[in-house]
Amino acid sequence: MREGQATAIHRADYTAPAYWIDTVELVFDLDPAKTRVLNKMRLRRNGDVAPQALRLDGEELNLARVLVNGQGTSFKMDGNQLVLENLPEGPEAFDLEIFTTCNPAKNTKLMGLYVSNDSFFTQCEAEGFRRITYFLDRPDVMASYTVTLRADKAKYPVLLSNGNLVEEGALDDGRHFAKWVDPHKKPCYLFALVAGQLVAREQRIRSRAGKDHLLQVFVRPGDLDKTEHAMNSLMASVAWDEARFGLPLDLERFMIVATSDFNMGAMENKGLNIFNTKYVLANQATATDADFSNIESVVGHEYFHNWTGNRVTCQDWFQLSLKEGLTVFRDQEFSQDLAGSPSARAVKRIEDVRVLRTAQFPEDAGPMAHPVRPDSYIEINNFYTVTIYEKGAEVVRMMQTLVGRDGFAQGMKLYFERHDGQAVTCDDFAQAIADANPQSDLARLLPQFKRWYSQAGTPRLHASGQYDAAARSYTLSLTQSCAPTPGQAIKDPFVIPVNLGLLDAQGQALPLQLAHWNQAESGTRTFVLTEASETLTFVNVDSAPVPSILRDFSAPVVLDYAYTDTELLTLLAHDNDPFNRWEAGQRLALARALKAITSDSDLANSPVLDEAYLDAMRQVLADPALDAAFKELVLTLPSETYLAEQLDVVDPQRIHAVREAMREQLATALQTQWQQAWEDNRDTGGYQPDPVSSGRRALAGLALTQLCVAARRSGDTVWPGKAFQRFKDAANMTDRFNALSALVISGHELAAPALSRFHALFKNEALVIDKWFSLQAGAPDHGGHVLPAVRQLMNHPDFNLRNPNRARSVIFSFCSANPGAFHRSDAAGYVFWADRVIELDAINPQVAARLARALDRWKKLAEPYRSAAREAIARVAAKADLSNDVREVVTRALAD
Ligand code: BES
Ligand code: ZN
Question: Measured on CA atoms in the order 537, 543, 549, 552, is the torsion positive or negative?
Fold first, then answer.
């Protein structure tokens, strides 16, 4: 095996480290082909653990020298570990000096120290530090770092590492140096260095507490005009964490550096966050509203890690959700708080839930299903998943629901009082929140609540209602269940907070009163379900109610309730919970889609959508009281992936055909309203990426697409012409890209000239060229045209498999985001997938393993897709020298 033994690591096997590392002094002589690393550590034995050899992790390093207290020493290699057996006995600290070299220019995995555009960057989470030097590469070993960087001054004028710059100066031969001291102890996964030709936008701020700080955003020269939004987002993040959680910036200097070669989105290295350019660079000419809002949340996310992750870190990688789930929750709350209005908050919530349901629910039902706190893994990189992140965030959100917003802030305070400077577990976090709220349902139910951490799978919540007119009572029966997941056949009941309201048939809110309550309550109430089955009996109910269940999506479950169309239309029109209004619209569309998918009706002759649905959508579009952003969400049909998840047997082509038919019908039947929506929202004035104007641009964009789709049907050329004009005249990327998409999605012949014009305009803007690739690879398939187009795109001079953003823009857009094009009856999509997984694996296993997951759900596929998919996965699995990353994914996919 290329990366040593692929053995599973088990959470139950955790033991404390045999040694502590108190201080680390690193000296780097940076050179692309051969960087020299001198690592002087001060270690001591951990007295709580039986005396044993020191085993240091290392990967792809050339070892030159090992000294203990300045003397040569014996050592041996055991696989990738450097083993030292003759260390000084007793509790006294000793010095260990290790000298190694590595080759950053050849580092295509982008883990450890690597070169991108002639600059040096590092990525150490989760286990990249071992690719820089031999170390105890585990998060519970926290040390103080002093780092000296030496490099050619002309080629690498900027030298950065964590903490404070304490010294810099010239060296011989045109070289120079910089010395950095990090005032905070940290695990090695938070180490970072950057060296290269970079320029910075700078901002000085004064905190609430009166401290001064320097904020810097480093980019390549020429990109400075795209850093204002990232800087604004950073300032907003600093202010928000202080205001909402009382958490201040604990550094004099906080730096963000952008690189175009990055496996992930961004990384929270202490004081020196390293970002994918995609989540830093934006101006109105090159970035869309979605880019602006992603930048805000990613900048926030990495900044918020400074407390949740860095000051308090994870004991081991099984606790990953301790920092990631909590920090996603925090970035979601940050974006909601910045959004302001209730409607804009709901829009953000809907977007987050959409991610959870289209990505996490399938993961939880597939071969890679795992608990929020996994029990074992082979490759930790495969566990940076939507379950750890998004479901983990929902678990934190449920805690907040159970203790209240203020109670949650108190819980956070206690968490930091107890654990600042420590490496802890998910139990420690939940305990702190519960202990700060002793009277809460969370405290009362804590052991059961923690099943959310240990049991995989998405619970189903079955609800049914019974109205007794004579007794004026309404009984709501709630039953929960959870299907088996790999390794977990039987599940115990979860604690499920159910936010509930009742409406009358006219849509008026009804007061809520359980039988034993003295008086009725109005609005939303949270009922906490703990048993497999429970009933709630409401009294003094004047008429048969329509239940609005799981308002604001109060738990990450699938809600089964046999809503009638009438009930859903009532909720869509009147519910005062905007999330459930949107949800009602989705349910109406879903029911119609599923009916058509599972019938064998001829889509050309039997329309999927009926007048009742179309009329409801007309009313939403025309409703002056609704925000444009909300309308756009309601009018967007459930995705093909989401539809597939609702079915036991999936025919991707049928799903694609039905959804396309629905889109066309909506386009044609609502033409007048689409035109109105376009006219009302096409001009949003001077560009601002705020929720109101970006919502209006989103609705205008959808309207334009729908008008072009309708035109394809009728043969009309006016709207495609208008779209082309708009594409040429647009004053911002959102409007321009939406117009281009309208032409591509509707398959109009003007798409080709628009695409080439777009490329010519932006040929020097890598992030825009990514959009250009991804739009084409993700285009709706017409007669199988996308795969040959994708093959051609891979031959384009701008394509580069080694750059993760570019690889994703073509290959992932096709394999993971375009089911109608990818799942071909001739199996050519799967053949392409297997070839790319194998090809990428030799370059960058992390990226390859993510691509490998595109066929996770193959077992649900109908024939001939199912057999063809299995064959493609088996072909990948048969390769002898796969990385552990890809091997784990394909092995799990093929397991029974
Ligand atoms: N700690 C991660 C970055 C990371 C993940 C590094 C996996 C190495 C391996 C960072 O905080 C993160 O979660 N980034 C996300 C974006 C975030 C907004 C959810 C990412 O990179 O996708
Ligand atoms: Zn994170």
Answer: negative
